[in-house]
Amino acid sequence: MYYQAGENMQPVVESDQMADTFVRAMIDDTIIARLLSMSCQEAREQSLPNQDFAQILCRDGSSLCFCVCDGVGSSYKGDFAAHYLATCLIEWLQGLTGLQQDPAMLAAILQSHLNQRAREAQERLKQVEPPSGVPRLVREVLEELRNTYGSETVFLCGRIDYGGWSIKLGESPPMRALFCWMGNVTARLFLASDQFIKLGGEDENGSRWSTVHGCRGPITTWSLALTTIDRLVIYTDGLDTLGESLVTFNDEEWQAHAEQLRRQPKSDDMTALELRWLHEGGRVQ
Q1: Tens digits of per-residue pLDDT, 221-242?
Q2: Packed helices 78-95 and 103-125: angle between N→C axes, nearest 10 degrees
């Protein structure tokens, strides 16, 4: 969905965990966002929530915060952790006074912050009861899962400060970007149409955030200055087989390829977020 949020009327694009989402929206005069989020076949048939959640928020036409979370299916209601943590991360990113700080220091600050927020999240999760009508034994197992492991999610989030920046080099100071992640959400940052940097995507340590345990594993942070940018694409592992091809698809192809993946026997929830910067005098195709 797309709407204005808060007293400052900040543009927000976010996915709907109870329905398939496809949004194409102008964030401001220089950025177009595309967001696709589709549940897997099992979730669709059983009317279960999508365990992915994505959100973008633009502040004052100068700073863009974004987050994609993928709830862990083996936890208790991974959709809860995905939604809660995404809003928490966006809030934290907005509160940073600047992106010049040392990434390792920011990782330590963020880890402490997320560990503290886990306590509140777990208290809220305890209010989320298992579905009514489930057998008593199943209910007990689910309650044990909720109380022992909680709700878990992986994520990739970031902030790009671009105020006053133009695609013509040298006209203004470079943009600054910060990326933070845990787990196997993948991003490709395209500096040009044929040149990208891959972020996230590898989950050797099984890193994730839990409402019971806080950060389970390290947070990776990466900061850089940018003098040019073409687009940023972030996607959950349900779309790993498409990977780099996502940037070549138009709106209809995004939805068609995701629908094909959903029909496969072991489909997973799928979310893709693209932010594309308009070149001066150009158009987004």
Answers
A1: 999 998 888 999 999 999 999 9
A2: 140
The whole-angstrom separation of Cα 112 and Cα 92 is: 12
Task: Report residue 80 CA to chain centroid gap.
Answer: 14
Extract the residue ranges of the chain whose pLDDT is less than 70. 1-11, 164-173, 204-205, 279-285
212-223 pLDDT, tens digit each? 999 999 999 999
Nearest to 32 by CA among 276, 259, 221: 276
> By the 8 A CB rule, do 210 and 150 touch?
yes
Contact 224, 177 (CB under 8 A): yes
Token pair for 275: 């932010």
Q: Are 28 and 62 within 8 A, CB to CB?
A: no
Residue with tokens 């964030």: 27
Tokens encoding 3: 């709407």
CA distance 69 to 3: 20
Domains belonging to the chain, first-starting first, are 2-277 (3.60.40.10)
What one-character-per-residue DSSP string does 74-95 give? TSS-HHHHHHHHHHHHHHHHHH
Enter the DSSP assignment of 183. S
Contact 174, 227 (CB under 8 A): yes
Bridge-based pairing state of the strands 208-210 and 214-216: antiparallel
Q: Does the model's pTM come out above 0.85? A: yes
In the structure encoding, which two tokens stand for residue 85, read together? 């943590």
> Are residues 88 and 180 in contact, defined by beta-carbon separation less than 8 angstroms?
no
| Max CA separation in the chain (angstroms) | 67
Q: Give 12's DSSP letter.
A: E
Q: In a 10 Å sphere around its CB, with 0-12 CB exposed, 13-18 middle and 19+ buried, how is residue 42 labelled?
A: middle
Distance CA 160, CA 176 (A): 6
The residue among 35, 37, 48 whose CA lies nearest residue 259 is 37
Strand partners, 13: 2, 56
